[in-house]
Amino acid sequence: MNEKDEREKRFAKGIYLLPNLFTTSGLFAGFYAIVAAMKGLFSIAAIAIFVAMIADSLDGRIARLTHTQSAFGAEYDSISDMVAFGIAPALVTYSLALHYLGKIGWLVAFFYVASTGLRLARFNVLIRKVELDKRYFKGLPCPSAAGFIAGMVWMQQIYQLQQWYISIIIGLLTIIAAILMVSNVHYRSFKDINWRDSVPFLHILIVVLLFVAIAFDPPRVLFIMFSLYLISGPIGALGRIRKKKNNNE
User: Fold this and answer.
1) What is the pTM of this model?
2) CATH class belonging to 11-248
């Protein structure tokens, strides 16, 4: 029996419940974010996107830990990501601010959705065809882009920014996040970290302080975190270009 027949036989027996349960949770959170945005509950919509990010970060790790990885799970995860990190952030920002820009607003929202789809398709193709450097992502990961968008929406709700130019700023930031997703800019994946290794006490203290900061002021801290991660890619790329230029000289 070849490998293809083995996969078909395993699929015929059913699918793995635990990892796909977390994937479904992420899909549900993304859909709920859309429903909340339609009702004008934008803070709740932003929180739902963050919940989807947590579920997305757990499904793959659980699948690897329990040896329940499957082609079905990978495809289902991509569909869930498209809804939670592509369609949901785009519709939330459109309902919040982009609709004031008319036709340009919904085109910006569509551009973000299309960029998410392209980002996911490229990742799926690369991971199957070539050996990727686990230390870096090629392009801004769509969950991080969605986290940046959700943080921006949450901040807008806190400060109740209603000026006419806020829609333009949100539109520009959405375009920047979309472009970075389909760019060749490298972002740290942190997948090379061995979580089983011992670490200095200071590292544990930093993690604890980070959790305390998030719990104390979730919207501001999360928005700052994802903003720093978003700009880390271009800054790193500029640093590598400058270093290469100096070496050539």
Assistant:
1) 0.88
2) mainly alpha
